[in-house]
Amino acid sequence: xxxxxxxxxxxxxxxxxxxxxxxxxxxxxxxxxxxxxxxxxxxxxxxxxxxxxxxxxxxxxxxxxxxxxxxxxxxxxxxxxxxxxxxxxxxxxxxxxxxxxxxxxxxxxxxxxxxxxxxxxxxxxxxxxxxxxxxxxx
Length: 138
Fold this sequence. Notes:
mainly alpha; three-stranded antiparallel sheet
């Protein structure tokens, strides 16, 4: 069995690349927010509080009376990382890359700023694989 995308998967790959780009940017943004939240929580002992009488505040966790935005960032990043990992898996399966490549791309939602780098690199490599396939078939 040859390694590489199947010709019938090309339209699906193009759609998956588009979804991957969006999920990569959103996940990377929430990861940066998560890093900021962790610095505030563990470095300064405060969480981000919203919907108070004064608007947005940095408040010690035990004194929060409004919405704990820090917890919301944690939860949102977790679910967005699941979406990112899902698009990574679908892209990996369709293009039939090595498992190591899947793991490397998965690190984009864990290592700050890596998803922005991968958002440019992975689609370029996916589209190059499609171009190679189309050139071979022609």
